[in-house]
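Q: What would this chain look like folded?
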Amino acid sequence: MFHLMHGYLSRHGERVYLDNALFGLEVIYKGIQTEGTFFLFPQRDQTNQTFKYFAFDTIEQKSRFEQLLKIQGVG
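A: My prediction, written as structure tokens:
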């Protein structure tokens, strides 16, 4: 699993990809940054047996997201 990646975002229709020189990941990202360091939160998709990656601009954003997931009924 990946938790930090430096690269650039590319959008293809509704999908967003975080790319670097070696590989790319499809991510869920709602920020405005297009290039730089992104903090990733991997979440297992039980239905498809895959991982979804949420991308954040700062470690604080990622930490707040993790705290929200701990609230019953939210995560």
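The two ends are 20 Å apart (CA to CA).
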